[in-house]
Structures are given as C-alpha cells and as structure tokens.
Amino acid sequence: MSFRILGTGKSVPSYVLTNDEMATIVDTSDEWIRTRTGIRERRVCTTESLSDLTTEASKLALEDAGVSPEELDLIICATFRGEYCSPAQSCIVQRNIGATCPAFDVNAACSGFIYSLDVAAGFFARKTVKKVLVVAADNVTNSVDWEDRSTCVLFGDGCGAAVLGEGDDLLSVNLKTKGDLDSLVIPHGENTFPKYELGSQRPTLRMNGREVYKFAVGAMSEGLEKAIRDAGVEQEDINFVIPHQANIRIIDAARHKLHIPEDRYVCNIDRYGNTSAASVPIALDEINRAGKLKNGDLIAMSAFGAGLTSASCVLRWNK
Ligand code: UT7
C-alpha cells in the first residue's frame, strides 16, 4: 500500500516581479533571463508570509479532496526554511487550518515534495494513517542576494499542497543525495519583513550555477529513467512529466536523453521561476485544476536541489 492523491492546492504571492522590473534592480535584461532560463516573471512575497501561503494552499487542497482538517492523521511540510526555526512550518499549518494530528517538516530543498511523498508512503504502508497533507513551500526570495544577478533572477516564492488517502498509486520512487557544500548553499539568516532589501548584509544563497546545471541534467534524466523502469512501465506510457522548474534548458537537456514527447512536459517556469520545494506541486495543482488529468494517467515527477538532493517518482492519477 502507498497512497492516492485526493486533492491538490497552491498559493502564490500576489506581487508579480517581471524581468523588466528585475532589470531595474540588477544589471540584467528580459532577453538574458528568458533565453538562459525560460523565466519571464516570478511571484515575490511582499505582504504575504510563508504561513499565509502554506495555510491557503492546504485549505484549497483539503477542499479539492473533500477532506476536513479533523480527518488528517499527519501533516508533512517540505521546506528548507520555515517561518520560524521552531515551531516547524507544519505545526503552524496544523494550528491555522484547525487540524489536531502530528506534524513535522522535511528539508530536502527543491526535492522536498517528492521526499515527503515517500515519507508519507511509509506511514501508509504501516497503516498508521488514512489521510495525510503534504504541503511544500519556500520563501526563496527572502534568502537571495538582491545584488547578485546570477542568482536573484532565478527564484520566486510559492506553495503547493496535496492531500493523500489510502491507495496504491505511488508506483516507484527514488531518492538520492550527494552531500555538497560548494554548489548550492543557503545559510541561516534573518527571516523578517521586508522580503528583499538592497544592500543588506544578511547571509544569502550562494550557487555555482554551472555545477548545479550539470548535476541537474543527469539527476533528472537518470532519475526519471530509473523511476519509470522501476514502475514497470514504458517511457511512452507516461502522460505527464512534472519536472522541477529551475531552468527550461535543464528540462530540455534532460528531455533529449529520454523518449517522452515534448508536449507531455508540464512547464510553468515562465510565470513562477524556481519556487524550490513548491515547484512540482504547484505544477501538479495547475494541471489538476485545468481538468487535464484523467483517472489512470501516469505522472512522472523529478526534482533536484541543494544538498545536493534529487528525487524522481511515478504516480497513477486516480482522484
Ligand atoms: O533548484 C536548483 C537551483 N539551481 C539551478 O537550477 C541552477 C542551475 N544553473 C543554471 O540554471 C544556469 O547555470 C544559470 C541560469 C544559473 C546560468 O546560466 P549559464 O548559461 O550557465 O550562464 P553563466 O553562469 O555561464 O554566465 C554566462 C554570462 C556571464 O558573463 P561572462 O562571464 O560570459 O561575461 C555572467 O556574468 O552571463 C552573465 N550573467 C548574466 N548576465 C545578465 C549571469 N547572470 C546574468 C544575468 N543577466 N542575470
């Protein structure tokens, strides 16, 4: 037994930061960002907190699932940094939605949603839960250096959530970690409003983009290939691929190593940039709410991020 997905939700901040506005903050251009990454705009928390996003996305996922907060047996929040060091973000969600179940966070950076699905699957396998909320959120723009054009243009804020019930729809999952302190590091730092301040001295995200790029293409193509093989299906059988939305060139490079038609890849990077742990579940929620998913569809998901972590899985949609 693993689980089936009963409902999904998402929440993004209202402020849209376009590439043109980004070019007023750092020395960049819409053309550079679009052609090097596929990003046109991203959402940035200006008045919203991480708790606002996680609470709203969780409520929408519960509503979509037809599940009440009291029915939840577990809440897992995937985030690299909750609003507080403690309590965990999942505890704040529990409080805000009126649930009473245990709650804890998982930190696997951008891979956190898929890691959390696998953690949830373990609880279902032990038959200790019937309903689980997995909510994935990061306020990355609060951790970036707004004077570093090589990183600040890439990220956005957001949250995605899924409510899981008993079922057998997680067909395969593989998690990987390559401990690394050079390629992508997000230090501890202040976590206060305003969300971005030019000239602030706080510790910020540091990344060797080229190293992460190389890791990402291999992690995504090999991870998807293995997850699909382990699920006992063919690549051609996959109806939707939901890749982590970090760079359209990474998605394209991984796609060229696989045999899944391009129109099956879900991409919303142009509107949100890289929202870290939220990236995969936001895309899942968008295709769910657009009515694109049919029961029996096979969805392959793949993500990578700081750690370095990576994760891929295959799910059957059976809502
Ligand atoms: O969730 C995981 C998070 N991280 C990632 O997925 C990142 C993976 N890496 C990438 O997506 C790409 O490596 C980047 C988008 C970060 C960079 O693209 P690139 O094609 O690898 O560019 P580059 O770092 O090789 O830089 C090329 C040039 C440099 O100028 P010179 O040295 O050639 O004169 C940079 O200074 O582009 C310059 N550059 C920019 N120019 C305008 C770097 N950032 C910018 C910018 N605007 N925002």
Short synopsis of the structure:
This protein has 319 residues and is of the alpha/beta class.
Walk me through what this model shows.
The protein has 319 residues and is α/β, with parallel strands linked by helices. It is 32% helix and 24% strand. The protein contains ten helices and 13 strands. A five-stranded mixed sheet has the order 1-7-6-4-5, with helices on both faces. β12 and β13 form a beta hairpin. The longest helix has 22 residues. The radius of gyration is 18 Å and the shape is globular. It starts with a strand and ends with a strand. The mean pLDDT is 95. It binds oxa(dethia)-CoA. Oxa(dethia)-CoA binds next to α2, α6 and α7.
- Rg is 18 Å
Characterize the main sheet: 5 strands, mixed
Q: Structural class of the helices, strands and pairings?
A: alpha/beta
Could you give the order of strands across the largest sheet?
1-7-6-4-5
Measured as a percent range, the helix fraction is 25-40%
Order of helices and strands: EEHHEHEHEHEHEEEEHEHHHEE
| Count of beta strands | 13
Q: What do the pLDDT scores average to?
A: 95
- Indicate the proportion of strand residues: 15-25%
